[in-house]
Design goal:
single chain, 427 residues, alpha/beta, Spore Coat Polysaccharide Biosynthesis Protein SpsA, Chain A, Rossmann fold, 2 domains, seven-stranded mixed β-sheet, 16 helices, binds S-adenosylmethionine
Length: 427
């Protein structure tokens, strides 16, 4: 016999549709996957209490609905499509939150907390409890709203956020107290994921409560892109150049691309050595392009565009490239539309005297031949021509120790700086 599961959310006064447009499709998909219904709490039943206290409606609702399992998810939470059914992982006699903190940090202790002794502080943006444990959401019967709120002491981070009000922590307070009062067994869901062997706790949820709405929207979009679910979930919010670049085959990570984008902004001319399918090139062209306006900067993409050399062993075979293939067509499909792109089909040292590249350029990004000698030759050729920023990739890649060795030899250790992940740049 299947069990009856309900996912609850709280949405009073039409809570931020710009957030729920992002989060609800995933919550709905999760509900479908685990065979749960969704119940959104939209009406106030406890008007004398702060808004978040309305989550405690679950105590009555869960019983009326005869649910075997109840899952509460805050409306600003992203649920990854791969998230496993939490009700299959948590014992029925145990309640779960994604994480918990130390109760007396934020709550004035009382006899329940002291007798219980575990001092579990709820982070109840995610809460899971079976029918055995609905007391998790039992409304208070021994404190007035004023007395309850007086027991709450927001952390410094919460106070500084200017987003979380003391009274808004009432739900976390009551759930923490109920865990203590009823001696509910408790498990952190992140630890369930760890125990199940998911790397770093699974990354199945994204939730950040100290951001304002605009920040949340930006961060949620970022998480959606990082999770790679933009297309499969049918999102249609506008994508940033880094999002698009991330969709192009290559090796540079998102933090590296973001770094490159920020650094290239406003540069008048950039030489990009080693472009492959255009992942870094896209980022550079978008950052300097200024929509083709009068302040448009130029990107000189230097690469023989021939599939050859040791790097080809790290290319996904599914691309079907064979030794000697010319892949400039793929490159141009990805970036050929940029009006500020100049493609130079040459090795970097041969491109050095190409008349199309100015004698001095503001920025040079090197990600070409990573052999020590060839890379040193690139430094010798391009460093004297760079006026603002010389940088490149694979500083820490164990496959290419020559990059770091050459940089230290050429510049000395102190002048070589590391950016995000494997980025190097010269101070
Ligand atoms: C690691 S890939 C570059 C990846 C690229 N930056 C990206 O974001 O995907 C190395 C590229 O360097 C190119 N390359 C190899 N030797 C080169 C050289 N001597 N001069 C210029 N490019 C070279 C290869 O053709 C290849 O496209």
């Amino acid at each position: 016999m299947g069990s009856k599961k309900t996912i609850f959310t709280l949405n009073l006064n039409g809570y931020a549709p710009e957030i729920t447009d992002l989060t609800y499709p995933l919550i709905e998909a999760y509900a479908r996957k685990i065979g749960a219904g969704i119940h959104t709490i939209t009406e106030r039943k406890f008007p004398e209490w702060p808004l978040t206290y309305e989550k405690l409606q679950i105590f009555e609702l869960a019983q009326q609905m005869k649910n075997d399992w109840n899952i509460y998810i805050d409306s600003d939470t992203l649920v990854h499509p791969d998230t496993p059914d939490l009700t299959a992982m948590l014992p029925r006699d145990t309640v779960g939150h994604f994480w918990s903190d130390f109760a007396p940090v934020r709550w004035r202790s009382d006899r329940f907390f002291q007798r219980d002794g575990r001092n579990i502080g709820s982070g109840n943006w995610l809460a899971v409890a079976s029918d055995l444990c609905v007391d998790l959401w039992r409304p208070l019967d021994d404190l007035t709203p004023k007395e309850a709120v007086a027991n709450i002491f927001p952390t410094v981070a919460e106070q500084r956020s200017a987003v979380v009000e003391r009274s808004h922590l009432i739900d976390d307070y009551v759930l923490s107290r109920n865990i203590a009062k009823f001696g509910l067994k408790f498990k952190r869901i992140k630890e369930l994921f760890d125990e199940a062997g998911f790397e770093k706790g699974g990354y199945f949820f994204y939730h950040h409560y100290l951001f304002n709405t605009a920040q949340k929207v930006a961060e949620l979009k970022k998480a959606i892109r990082t999770w790679g679910i933009y297309e499969i979930m049918g999102y249609d919010f506008e994508r940033t150049p880094v999002d698009v670049a991330e969709g192009i085959t290559g090796w540079m990570s998102r933090p590296e691309l973001e770094w490159l984008y920020e650094k290239a902004k406003g540069m008048k001319d950039v030489v990009a050595i080693g472009n492959f399918m255009g992942r870094s090139t896209y980022t550079l062209c978008a950052a300097t392009g200024n929509g083709g306006g009068p302040t448009m900067g130029m990107v000189y993409a230097v690469d023989p565009f021939v599939f050859s050399g040791d790097w080809k062993n790290y290319v996904n075979p599914s691309l079907g490239l064979q030794e000697g293939d010319d892949f400039s067509g793929e490159f141009l499909k990805n970036v050929g539309h940029f009006p500020n792109l100049v493609t130079i089909k040459k090795k970097s040292v041969d491109a050095a005297d190409d008349p199309v590249i100015p004698g001095k350029v503001e920025m040079v990004f090197i990600d070409g031949d990573h052999g020590k000698e060839a890379f040193l030759a690139d430094l010798e050729t391009w460093a004297p021509r760079t006026t603002k920023l010389l940088c490149g990739h694979d500083f820490t890649d164990p496959m290419y120790p020559g990059v770091k060795e050459a940089l230290y030899e050429f510049y000395g250790k102190d002048r070589v700086k590391q950016g995000p992940d494997s980025i190097w740049y010269i101070q």
